[in-house]
Amino acid sequence: MNTPEWLSRGVSKLLPAGSLEPNQPLALAETAQVATKSIAPANKAAGDGSTRSRSTHERLKATLTQKDEALSPRMLRRSLQELQAMIDPRVSEVEGGRRASAMAAWYIGATAQRRRDLWLLMSEQFVADPVKVKAAQAQFAATIGTPDEAVAEVNYRRATVSPRRRLLQRFSVYPGGIQFLVDMRAEMQPALKQDKRLMALDVEMEYMFSTWFDVGFLDLRRISWDSPASLIEKLIKYEAVHDIKSWADVKNRLDSDRRCYGFFHPRLPDVPLIFVEVALVDGIASNITPLLDELAADADLVKATTAIFYSISNTQTGLRGVSFGDSLIKRVVESLTSEFPKLKIFATLSPIPGFRSWLGKNATAMLATLDDKERSALGRAVGFEPPGATHFLTAAETSLHLTDKSPVRQMLMRCAAHYLGQATVDGKPVDPVARFHLGNGARVERLNWAGDPSNKGLKQSYGLMVNYLYDLKRLDKHRAQLAQGKAPVSSSVQQLFLGN
Questions:
Q1: How many angstroms separate the CA atoms of 188 and 304, rounded?
Q2: Are 62 and 135 in contact (CB under 8 A)?
Q3: In 48-148, which ranges are continuous DSSP H helix?
């Protein structure tokens, strides 16, 4: 029996009854939700302090299994041996990849709790040697300012590299290995909130993915109606901003007056890591409904002066923390200007996903900024003076029926302007979409009343949408402004700020 067969046979002994065979395809994305639900109770016990979960160090020395432990100490020791065998310096890269493939097959067939035990092994057992790290650190400190400093720094850096990194590299070798790791990290995300022991593995994976998925290694490809059906199906599956409801809907988004681009990795050639949908129009769009209208006539490309980015979707939860958006928008702008030299304006029509939730918590503080005249007018509009948060928020429920001069509508617009341009957390915009676009150098250009009258739009932001403008000559200026804690906004939005 050769080594791969022995390894596969050994790993198969850990498989629960009815599990997948080692050569079956990976399908983590399909099972992640179920697995997460099963894992949560055990993780909660580990994270809230109500009961103390044993570390893998303790469990490896034990003989009996305790409550919430999926693998027995004996099985845990065998799993650790299999992982260690993957990075044995005596085996080749190819052989290590075969062993990783066998472990991945076991993982696919394992229960959610057993998968969690494997995460814990990878997180707790594959750490840098603390003795070597301490010695290298002391040597580095002693050589600062001397000719030996550079060598000491290199030795220190090498000492701090954990064998966990080598483990991840082994998984990446075999076909499907990178997707396996991305799916594994996606499945881990909810568990991280309750079990901080997994943080070391998560951070290591984020670091490795940032290297493997550097934008310099990614291909920008246009996705059109002529693209393979399997690729178009992925657009339907991963669209995160405006749900695609039918094939006619997706065809409309890929029509002649539209463009769709995605970033692709050579090892995942059929999966767009992130994609953006663009409408080519004459002027900045204020309402999403016409852009999604399947029956609307195609725009005249000869007259098109504006590219509207109306949807940007990440497809891989496991790549959280790996940034693509900034480079994607830059590359798309370059491609569009090459194809359509008349395009001068690049803007978004974006949702404000956190506004309604934020206002529910901050309405009282916002009302406190009104002067007596403004407070009185709002009170008459909501039927109660002085108006409280509950009265204002109740009146806001009928946002689509509010007239231009309605004090409730005006107050909602002012609160939205404050939310996008002034509300911050750790010096960054509260709203995730604002944080993304402003971080890329855009500015808050215009608020659009009833920009998204759909149920989703009403639930997120009372139907409000926002345009972020990408002024190509001022991107660096806007980034610098944001770094100083001040969100770049247009004069029209600034005039809406409360207290003006």
A1: 45
A2: no
A3: 56-61, 73-86, 93-109, 112-124, 130-143
Please state whether beta strands 424-425 and 345-348 pair in parallel, antiparallel, or not at all (unpaired). unpaired
Phi, psi of 457 (to 5 degrees): -65, -40
**What is d(CA 308, CA 284) in angstroms, rounded to the nearest whole number?**
7
Tell me which DSSP letter residue 128 carries. Answer: -
Q: What is the pLDDT of residues 169-205, one digit of tens each?
A: 999 999 999 999 999 999 999 999 999 999 999 999 9
pTM score of the predicted model:
0.84
Q: What angle do CA 12, 17, 19 make, to 5 degrees?
A: 65
Rounded CA-CA distance 2/133 in Å is: 37
CA dihedral of 77, 114, 30, 261, whole degrees rounded to 10: -50
Q: Which two tokens stand for residue 107?
A: 């993982």
CA–CA gap between residue 413 and residue 430 (Å, rounded): 17
Residue 458 CA: distances (Å) to CA of 97, 231, 238, 450, 465: 50, 31, 22, 9, 10
pLDDT digits (tens, 9 = 90+) for 121-130: 999 999 999 9
Per-residue tokens: 361: 């918590």
Helices marked H in 13-63 — which ranges? 28-47, 56-61
pLDDT for the residue 53:
87
- How do residues 61-90 score in pLDDT, each as one tens digit? 999 999 889 999 999 999 999 999 999 999
Q: Which of 213, 247, 499 is nearest to 369 (CA)?
A: 499
State the Cα–Cα distance between residues 252 and 248, nearest whole angstrom: 6
As a whole number of angstroms, the distance between CA 274 and CA 261 comes to: 8
Please give the radius of gyration of the chain, using alpha carbons only, rounded to the nearest integer: 27
Catalytic residues: 350, 437
Residues 36-41: contacts with CB within 8 Å, 24+ apart?
Answer: 36/112, 36/187, 36/190, 36/191, 37/112, 38/111, 38/112, 38/113, 39/112, 39/113, 39/115, 39/116, 39/190, 39/191, 40/190, 40/191, 40/194, 41/68
Question: For position 8, what pLDDT does the model report?
Answer: 42
Closest CA to 410 of 422, 389, 391, 396: 396
Q: Is the peptide bond before 386 cis (omega within 30 degrees of 0)?
A: yes
Q: How far apart are CA 392 and CA 356, in angstroms?
A: 12
